[in-house]
Amino acid sequence: MSVMTPAGDYRESYHADMCIFPTRNSRWAMLVGLALCCAAPLVLDRYALSLMINIGMLGIAALGLNILVGFTGQISIGHAAFFGFGAFASAGFADLGVPVLLAMPLAALATTAVGLVFGLPAARLKGLYLVIATLAAQFILEDFFARAQWFSGGVAGRVTDAPNLFGVALDTDARYFYVVLLWVVLSFCAVANLVRTRDGRALIAVRDHYLSAEMMGVDLAYYRTLSFGIASFFAGLGGALYAHYLRFVSVEAFTILFSIQFLAMVIIGGLGSVMGSLLGTCFMVLLPEVVQAVADALQGGAIDRALKLGSSIAFLREMTIGAAIILFLVFEPEGLARRWRLIKAYWKLYPYSY
Amino acid sequence: MIAGAPPILEAVGISLRFGGVAALREVSFAVQTGEVFSIIGPNGAGKTSMVNCISGRYRPSEGSIWFEGRDITRPPANRRPAIGIGRTFQNLALFSHMTVLDNIMVGRHHLLRRGFLSGMAYWIGGAQRDEIAHRGEVEEIIDFLDIQHVRKAPAGTLPYGLRKRVELARAVAVKPKLLLLDEPMAGMNLEEKEDMARCILDLNEEWGMTVLMIEHDMGVVMDISQRVLVLDFGRKLAEGPPEVVLTDPQVRRAYLGGASDGAPAGELATAP
Ligand SMILES: Nc1ncnc2c1ncn2[C@@H]1O[C@H](COP(=O)(O)OP(=O)(O)O)[C@@H](O)[C@H]1O
Ligand SMILES: [Mg+2]
């Protein structure tokens, strides 16, 4: 059980009991993890680093979607469009002369505004109607990207700048990594704090039992809209980081398939789990790599010849993602977050685990 | 009760229709400040509907509801905690994936002032101070209802009797002047009922809450309520002290005649 704490680890005050990392070991593990991340650019090769950057950027957006889907119990299949909006908006602000590091949060705020426009009516919808409304958001935004050349650069796409800090261009993976890491830490801390305070509880209450939430004074429409706003903010922020990392943004990237991948991240990671958002993103980013590695290993063998791995690798990747979602829904509906908790509980009590 | 003191709650000519079904027909009654007031009646009599009207869940088709001299017929349910009304539900309505502690903290929603931005900036916006202060008060409620041992358990994993307590704790956390309880003892054994009755009396006498409850167990109703309202097929049959109301021939007929719901016909007959 996750509520178990080792004997002797007493909480002396409500303050201590309300920490994000309640045991000394968990705090140490966090600090060590952070230190390892900070050291990553020094030891990892460029390829591994780019995977980590991807996990960070997408993880922030997945975190946003988890607030909407996991915590508030709504759904969105238009998340990638908001991610894209953030990317274009940040590129746009940067072109207007705003420093890139400032353009990114500004773009996130602009995306929040767009999210609220779609969220206001969506807050009054439920179930299938909400799915359709967010589907509409996806297509409306995609259409907007395609038509508004000034915004998206049209078919040619949009070239973006690397951020710049006191004259140092953050244009290598090793440098950009820290930009992403900073935003990941800020975003995940903010959401971990949110869910243990008033408005976060209200969001979860709306999901679990909206009638009694209302009776406790929770304004349903406000909180449903708010969760759209917050989800869009993080989608926009992730998109902005993406834009200035790839240094090029174009319309084709932000399709409904991408939206569904975001959904897969939060389902696999664990709906309603802050850490799960990151775990699910890791899984989704690393899975294709694993598929590729397996295909490479099998190259030239009988299986390769039978399945034509070389030519159908893209197809195989989609299949494994689909299979992973189904397997998780069936066998681990609480996602990787539950495994994570079990492992944590094990280490908390180590070596007296039984 | 002080004669002439204004009632804390007054329902005036409440009618409620669902399509062709009239759940309530011109029901009027008043709850005095400081009393324990019970609504009784057979299943389907409209008791829950009445509580839903008071708590803003339903808007009455006709009539008005007054709280401390103020018309509260129109404000929506989410305004009730600020007005001073808290409630529990007949069918358990906890946030089942949240811990017991968090469930009860949701009751503090209208008292906690910091929004999501302060919440996100936990350490610097004052949210931490707020949370700790309210946590202290919530712990008092947890002690009072004797649910310390399940504080960190997800509410959905608890047995029925405990869940009822947690729901009461959550309603108490709202700090209501008027507490609405919809069948707080349904499905409980004798011992649990006695505990619950004790709690309700303490809330009334020591915490100063006026209580309006729906209850089937006539023994409990007689024991702890100062006055009762009897509903039958959406109509008011009687209102007054229990010993007077239960001798009313109309009330006896309603109970002894159509007691199809396990409502306490027998208990009524043996009631003193
Ligand atoms: N939401 C609703 N829609 C339709 N009919 C309802 C609704 N709520 C209550 N009723 C009807 O109103 C009547 C009174 O129900 P209720 O207030 O739940 O009775 P009680 O709590 O006294 O058992 C019943 O006939 C019930 O079917
Ligand atoms: Mg009822």
CATH-defined fold name of the largest domain in chain B: Rossmann fold
Q: For the record, give the distance between the C-alpha atoms at the N and C termini of chain A, rounded to a whole number.
A: 12 Å
Mean pLDDT across all amino acids of chain A: 86
Q: Spatial order of the strands in the main sheet of chain B?
A: 6-7-8-3-9-10
Order of helices and strands of chain A: HHHHHHHEEEHHHHEHHHHH
**Name of the level-1 CATH class of chain A:** Mainly Alpha
Mean pLDDT of chain B: 88
Let me know the largest β-sheet of chain A: 2 strands, antiparallel
Overview of the molecule:
- The complex is a heterodimer of chains A (354) and B (272).
- Chain A is an all-alpha fold and 354 residues long.
- Helix content of chain A is 74%, strand content 2%.
- Chain A has 16 helices and four strands.
- Chain A has helices at 14-17, 24-43, 46-71, 79-95, 100-122, 127-147, 149-152, 173-194, 198-208, 210-215, 220-246, 256-269, 274-297, 302-307, 309-331, 336-349, and strands at 158-159, 164-165, 168-169, 248-249.
- Chain A has a two-stranded antiparallel ribbon with strand order 1-4.
- In chain A, a hairpin with a 2-residue loop joins strand 2 (164-165) and strand 3.
- In chain A, helix 4 (79-95) packs antiparallel against helix 5 (100-122).
- The longest helix of chain A is centred in the middle third of the chain and has 27 residues, at 220-246.
- Chain A is globular.
- The mean pLDDT of chain A is 86.
- With 272 residues, chain B is of the alpha/beta class.
- Chain B folds into two domains: 1-81 and 179-185 and 211-272, Rossmann fold (3-Layer(aba) Sandwich), CATH 3.40.50; 85-175, 3-Layer(aba) Sandwich (Rossmann fold).
- Chain B has eleven helices and ten strands.
- In chain B, the strands form two sheets. Chain B has a six-stranded mixed sheet, with helices on both faces.
- The two termini of chain B are 23 Å apart.
- In chain B, 46% of the residues are buried.
- The model of chain B is unreliable at 258-272 (pLDDT under 50).
- At the A-B interface, helix 8, helix 9, helix 10 and helix 11 of A face helix 2, helix 3, helix 4 and helix 5 of B.
- The site of magnesium ion has 3 residues of chain B, from helix 1.
- Magnesium ion (MG) binds at residues 47-48, 90 of chain B.
